Amino acid sequence: MNRLCVHTITTKPWSIEEAAENFAKAGVSGITVWRDALDGRNVQQTGEMLRQHQLEIVSLCRGGFFPSTSAKKREEAIVDNKKAIDTAAALGAPMVVLVCGADPGQPLSTSRKQIQEGIEKLLPHAEANNVKLTIEPLHPMYADTRSAINTLAQANDMAESISSKWVGIAVDVYHLWWDDLLQSEIMRCGRNDNLYAFHICDWKSPTEDMLLDRGLMGEGCINVPEIRGWVEEAGFEGQIEVEIFSNRYWEMDQHQFLDQIIKAYQNHS
Amino acid sequence: MNRLCVHTITTKPWSIEEAAENFAKAGVSGITVWRDALDGRNVQQTGEMLRQHQLEIVSLCRGGFFPSTSAKKREEAIVDNKKAIDTAAALGAPMVVLVCGADPGQPLSTSRKQIQEGIEKLLPHAEANNVKLTIEPLHPMYADTRSAINTLAQANDMAESISSKWVGIAVDVYHLWWDDLLQSEIMRCGRNDNLYAFHICDWKSPTEDMLLDRGLMGEGCINVPEIRGWVEEAGFEGQIEVEIFSNRYWEMDQHQFLDQIIKAYQNHS
């Protein structure tokens, strides 16, 4: 249990105050904060509230969305990502997770260049604030609008090309489980000290919604323990983050859902 | 127009007789027949009917679904694939397209082994009937149940490992457009004489259904002309097959839809 982190979006019906109290009571040790959970709050005080509950603040979700055919929108993305870095610093989160973005109006290769340019522009601000930037490769079904980085190989290429200790990678089993190069790319990621975060959930068969039908570990076809084994073999010692978007689970009593998350974490990860 | 093939499922509301008549009138030159379109018909006579309409029969869709945790089901799949080969031979189709299958209850690597074993078992029957078997790599969002072969690299590996002129590959832009290795893998596929079929449509943003919301060429984010260019550079000279599953288009008047297909083929492929 001292490595179990839950994302605020996983128990979306709860406010961050309810989540903090209930996570702490249940013995959860970490929390990843989504920016919308901070709406209308003093960020620094919220960070203190989380630490008073003995919760490790693992990441802030999310920055990114760098690519656009419009130069103005690319500039706006930089401004927004600087705000995300400021928020992470105020909250006391060591990193911002990046959903890197894509624009269906241009080639993926162009989007990838714009992602790298965006991250490089942020580096001085990230370093000045002691906040890392974590590239999360997303499933190819999100390549049109959410991310032009769709394999761990691509994320490794980019992190190695940028080559800064302020830039690393989040491995999420949901996005990467299908890739036959996953094991070797996880080892490469660890070898280059780029493995910053590990997200878990499961892929349901059938999956009824492309975004909001993720499963609890053990409920689908992903071998989470095997991938966790690779990640740990690659040197990762951080929190194991449960990140589930699910209309079905959000409709449930969230106390019961949190119980199920803990059981799934203990038995299937 | 002398390279435009349309799949029977693309205009699903039409019977194969209606499709043949309307495709021929519109100047379409090829047809790929889905097995359900043959239900209740004499297959040989249907093949003759298609040829009388001057339609080239490009493929029969579909065989495959080899993997299962149950040995009995794997045997049943072989029986069913032999039937598909018989049907293709009776129809006069030179190949059966394989949606290779996957079983969420076992690792993808196991499913891939079972796919290769299944194809190898079919080889004598394929050769005896002069029918080729065409591996179609499917998008990673179908890796749980529809196919454990999710990249052209994997399909190339398998076709080269089987190494028979009775086994090749179908490149479908919908499944493969996101892959940054696509161009080089298409060249590899052509170099090894494994490029047997080319399927087109588009990826809509947003895509509202994981299966039944494909777009017409030009309607989404896939650069179909660029991929077609690679396929032709790799030596492919066959029919360009329009394969669209779409609740939205199936609800339309199919004559209007066929007009749109032809325009999209002429302007965006």
Describe the structure.
Two copies of one chain form a homodimer. With 269 residues, chain A is an alpha/beta fold. In chain A, 44% of the residues lie in helices and 16% in strands. In chain A, helix 3 packs parallel to helix 4 and helix 7 runs parallel beside helix 8. The longest helix of chain A has 22 residues. Chain A is globular and about 45 Å long. Chain A starts with a strand and ends with a helix.
Strand-helix topology:
Two copies of one chain form a homodimer.
Chain A: E1 4-7, H1 16-26, E2 30-34, H2 43-52, E3 56-64, H3 71-91, E4 95-99, H4 108-129, E5 132-135, H5 152-162, E6 167-172, H6 173-176, H7 182-191, E7 195-200, H8 224-233, E8 240-242, H9 247-250, H10 254-268
Parallel strand pairs in A: 1-2, 1-8, 2-3, 3-4, 4-5, 5-6, 6-7, 7-8
Helix pairs in contact in A: 3-4, 7-8
Features:
homodimer; 269 residues; alpha/beta; TIM Barrel; eight-stranded parallel beta barrel; 10 helices; 8 strands; 16% strand; globular
User: What is the CATH homology-level superfamily of chain A?
Assistant: Divalent-metal-dependent TIM barrel enzymes
User: What is the second-level CATH architecture of chain A?
Assistant: Alpha-Beta Barrel
The oligomeric status of these chains comes to: homodimer
Number of helices of chain A: 10
Helix content of chain A: 40-55%
N- to C-terminal distance of chain A: 12 Å
Structural class of chain A: alpha/beta
Question: Largest interface, counted with CB-CB under 8 A?
Answer: A-B, 26 and 26 residues
Specify Rg of chain A, calculated over alpha carbons: 17 Å
- Summed up, the domain count of chain A is 1
How would the global form of chain A be characterised? globular
Query: Please, what is the average pLDDT of chain A?
Result: 98
Order of helices and strands of chain A: EHEHEHEHEHEHHEHEHH
